[in-house]
Amino acid sequence: MALKGINAYKQGNTKQDIASADPHKLTLLLMQGALDRIAYAKGAMERKEYEAKADYISKAVAIIMHLRDTLDLSVGGETSENMFALYDYMVDRLNSAHFKNDLQMLDEVSSLLSPIRDAWVQIPEAAKQEAYEAQRQKRQAV
């Protein structure tokens, strides 16, 4: 019973974070969400809770596909193309991990996504604001 209250509190905080987040923060929340779901899937796999494992992997795949699909390939050039390919690879590995019940594949995806998340955290505030302003001006021009 108490766990429901804790989960409701966490969910409320997440909704509040999302509502007040800038695009940089939203991307960070998505990356962390994918990493969390992969960790939960790993635990479920170890406990042989296959339905939960499938749910967590499915959610991680959806998040990573969203990250992939929101890349602006026309602006990012080779870097964006490489990120697109890397996200595709992560999706493939997660699906393989699901079908093969392979913990190492889950660890591999976490080890690929974690440094991206860590680098994302290190982006200077000035660079975030510059990118946000450029995106805002691009939308206004359309």
Automatic annotation (TrEMBL):
Q: Name one GO biological process term.
A: bacterial-type flagellum assembly
Q: Where in the cell is it found?
A: Cytoplasm, Cytosol
For this UniProt record, the keywords arranged alphabetically read as follows: Bacterial flagellum biogenesis, Cell projection, Chaperone, Cilium, Cytoplasm, Flagellum
Classification via InterPro entries = FliS, FliS_sf
One Pfam match = FliS
Q: Which GO terms describe its cellular component?
A: cytosol
Q: Does the keyword Cell division feature in the UniProt annotation?
A: no
Q: Does the keyword Cytoplasm apply?
A: yes
| Family, per entry | Belongs to the FliS family.
Q: What name does the UniProt record give this protein?
A: Flagellar secretion chaperone FliS
Per the UniProt entry, what species is this protein from, by scientific name? Answer: Alteromonas halophila
The gene name reads: fliS
